[in-house]
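User: Here's a chain of 298 residues. Predict its fold as C-alpha cells.
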Amino acid sequence: MKIRANGIGIEVEDTGAGAGQTQRPVVLLIMGLGMQLVAWPPAMVEALVAAGFRVIRHDNRDIGLSQHFDHLGAPNILWESIKLKMGFTPKAPYQLQDMALDAIGVLDALGVQQAHVVGVSMGGMIAQRVALAAPDRVLSLTSIMSSSGARGLPEAQPKVLRALLSRPEGTDRDAIINHYIKLFRVIGSPAFPLDEALTRERIAMGIARNHHPVGTLRQMLAIAADTGRRAAELGRIRARTLVLHGKDDPLVPFPCGEDTARRIPGAQLVGIAGMGHDLPPGVVERLLTPMIPHLQAA
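Assistant: Prediction complete.
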C-alpha cells in the first residue's frame, strides 16, 4: 500500500494491516542499497510474525514503488568517489538522514509510537540514523552487515567494487538477471552457496515489480555523504543494540561491524562465520537465533 511519509510517497507492506495484529510489538525492517522491500526473505518475515511481532517493511525512497527522484539527475559516481578519497564530502541529492525521516514517517502514518528497528547494509546505516533522530521511538536497534561510516575502515575488495559499479551487458530481462547473479556470486556467503534457481526467480520478481538503477546511484551518494559524520554520533544511541555481521563479508568487511558495536554503548556483536553480504536461508537462520531473543528482551 502507498502512504505519505515525510512528505513523499512510500510503498509499505504491513503484516498488521487488517490482520488483527495491530497490538503486537512492531519490527520495522529497512532494506539496503538499491533493494526493494521484497528482498527481505519471506522466511525471516514469517519467523518474526510467528514470534509474535507485527512486521512493517517499506521501499526506501528512489527505489521500488516509493517515490523516485529522477528530477535530481543522475550523479557522477566516479567524480564524487574521487572527492571522497580526497577527504571531501560528496554532493548528494539527499541524505541518509532524509531516509531515516522517511522511516520515522512510515511509523507516523501507521500510528505506530515505538518499534524495533532492523536494518541491513545501507538499511543498518539508516536504522542508526533513526535511533539518533528519534530515540524515544526505538525499542531496540539491530544493525546487520552494516557500518558506522567511519573513515579508515577496511573497504570492499576491488573485484567487489567492480561488480557493484558494473552494468548489465544488455537491457533485456535476462541480461539484468545475469548481472545481479554475477554480483551475488561475488558478495555472497561462501559457507552458504547461492541457490541460483531461487535467486533468479526472486530477481525476476523484483524486476517485474520495478527496476530503477539510477535510484541506486543516488542512494550510493547518500551513503558516501554520511561517511565520517555518523560515526562520531553513535555514542549517543541508548537503544538496546545488536550488531550482526558476516565474518566473510567482502563488501562491508567484518571490522566494520566490530567498529559499529564498539561505538554504540552496550551493543552486542555477533559474528557469523561463512556469512558474506547476502541473506540466503542458512544465514537467515543464524541471524534469527540471536535476533529474536534480542527483540523479546527489549
